[in-house]
């Protein structure tokens, strides 16, 4: 806010009826009236100054206006009054929240000790200046990434509790409640009231935002207002509010009812709704639409399942209609004769194989018998062997008086050698040994 300097330099002689500090003592105090007159005389020496600020109070009493003007940076405020004669010369659209410049002159009322500034001129600050400041802030926040879609949090499909920040008893609150409850009757709200314009707008909105963001059951937060001109929407482009929205962990929806000149809150919020009604429609699904969608999906599922079952039944009937499955025993009957032929052929081959092997076995048995020493003995031959079992192959092995064992076709008997018989002794070499048959 622009400061002003008194027209009279301190230290100069005050008005004649004024009181100096040294003119009053505990023994001789001055009067309240004289003190107030001194203050009024001093204040009236100040000149008029032009000051810039935001209107935060505008109370009209009769034709006069009593209000307050707030600094654009700090929370400093001053009181002002506009007499009816001056009010007629000022713009007719002045109101709370407007950014203005005013020509003011200090005044002091000695009767009740009130101090205020009288307004002789007041007008809106050029919209171009405001837009320039907003564009600089917009560029700064965009460079910091606050507008980046990647950082925006998704809105839940069906929030259980919706946090609502709006003006008390406002049309915006009624619109959000009415449209949301029409779409989903079970929706629940937790509402925090805040000023939606003026000097209380930003701090109250930030406080409400922090309270709702800290509530664990709140799924989404809506900041709603029923529109307004660019001057009244300046609070929703305040850097403090924008950074608080960006830092919130709960998704935030901007529902400031406007279309053309939207505040920066629209760019920082996770979702922009054109109006409070639009916010309600985008936050909760329409129960009728969801039921219709469920019915449609169930119908599609039933149709798909019916088609699949019908197709599988048709395939099964097609398989069952084949001869081999229609009369499975026919396959066995048609192959039974072949099985009988194969079985008979197998039995015949086994019989022939057995006969062949029986003949071969008989032949081998006969051959074995022919080669067996028992067969030779059966024909009348004998085998002589000594007591130690050595077969006598030479007559010299059995000298006279040598006991021998003679084995014949049926058993063995003991004998004693009379010695070797000389050839030509009149006994045949085969004497005693029967000739073979």
Please give a structural write-up.
With 437 residues, the chain is α/β, with parallel strands linked by helices. The chain folds into 4 domains: 21-125, OB fold (Dihydrolipoamide Acetyltransferase, E2P) (Beta Barrel); 130-150 and 159-285, Rossmann fold, CATH 3.40.50; 293-326; 375-416, no CATH class. It has helices at residues 32-43, 84-87, 127-143, 171-183, 201-214, 239-247, 265-268, 276-283, 287-320, 323-326, 328-371, 373-378, and strands spanning 49-61, 64-70, 77-82, 99-109, 114-124, 161-166, 188-193, 220-225, 252-256, 271-272, 383-386, 403-408, 411-416. Helix 4 (171-183) runs parallel beside helix 8 and helix 5 (201-214) runs parallel beside helix 6 (239-247).
Class derived from helix and strand content: alpha/beta
Order of helices and strands: HEEEHEEHEHEHEHEHEHHHHHEEE
Mean pLDDT: 83
Q: Please, what is the CATH homologous superfamily of the largest domain?
A: Hypothetical protein af1403, domain 2
Give the biggest sheet: 5 strands, mixed, barrel
Beta-strand fraction estimate: 15-25%
Q: Class of the largest domain, according to the CATH hierarchy?
A: Alpha Beta
Q: Which value, in Å, is the CA radius of gyration?
A: 65 Å
How many β-strand stretches?
13
From the spread of the alpha carbons, the general shape counts as: rod-shaped
């Amino acid at each position: 806010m622009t400061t002003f300097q008194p027209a009279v330099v301190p230290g100069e002689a005050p008005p004649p009826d004024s009181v100096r500090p040294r003119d009053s003592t505990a023994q001789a105090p001055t009067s309240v009236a004289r003190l107030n007159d001194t203050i009024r005389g001093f204040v009236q020496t100040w000149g008029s100054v032009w000051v810039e600020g935001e209107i935060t109070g505008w109370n009209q009493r009769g034709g006069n206006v009593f209000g307050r003007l707030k600094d654009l940076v700090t929370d400093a405020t001053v009181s002002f009054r506009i007499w009816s004669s001056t009010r007629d010369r000022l713009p007719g659209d002045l109101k709370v929240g407007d950014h203005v410049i005013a020509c003011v002159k200090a005044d002091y009322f000695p009767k009740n000790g009130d101090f205020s500034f009288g307004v002789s001129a007041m007008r809106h600050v050029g919209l171009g200046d405001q837009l320039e400041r907003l564009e600089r802030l917009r560029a700064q926040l965009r460079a910091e990434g606050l507008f980046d879609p990647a950082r925006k949090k998704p809105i839940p499909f069906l929030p259980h509790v919706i946090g609502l920040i709006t003006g008390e008893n406002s049309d915006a609150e009624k619109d959000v409640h009415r449209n949301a409850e029409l779409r989903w009757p079970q929706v629940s709200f937790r509402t925090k009231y805040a000023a939606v314009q003026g000097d209380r707008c930003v701090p109250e909105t930030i406080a409400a935002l922090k309270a709702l963001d800290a509530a664990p059951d709140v799924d989404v937060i809506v900041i709603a207002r029923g529109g307004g001109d660019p001057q009244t929407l300046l609070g929703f482009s305040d850097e403090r509010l924008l950074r608080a929205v960006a830092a919130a962990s709960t998704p935030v929806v901007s529902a400031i009812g406007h279309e053309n000149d939207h505040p920066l809150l629209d760019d920082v919020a996770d979702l922009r709704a054109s109006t409070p009604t639009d916010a309600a429609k985008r936050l909760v699904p329409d129960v009728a639409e969801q039921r219709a969608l469920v019915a449609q999906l169930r119908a599609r599922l039933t149709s798909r399942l019916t088609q699949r079952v019908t197709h599988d039944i048709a395939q099964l009937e097609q398989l069952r209609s084949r001869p081999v499955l229609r009369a499975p025993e026919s396959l066995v009957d048609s192959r039974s004769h072949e099985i009988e032929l194969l079985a008979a052929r197998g039995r015949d081959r086994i019989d022939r194989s057995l006969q062949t092997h029986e003949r071969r076995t008989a032949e081998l048995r006969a051959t074995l018998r022919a080669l067996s020493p028992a067969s030779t003995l059966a024909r009348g031959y004998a085998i002589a062997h000594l007591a130690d079992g050595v077969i006598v192959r030479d007559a010299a092995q059995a000298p006279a008086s040598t006991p021998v064992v003679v084995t014949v076709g049926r058993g063995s008997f003991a004998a004693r050698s009379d010695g070797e018989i000389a050839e030509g002794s009149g006994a045949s070499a085969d004497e005693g040994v029967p000739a073979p048959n």
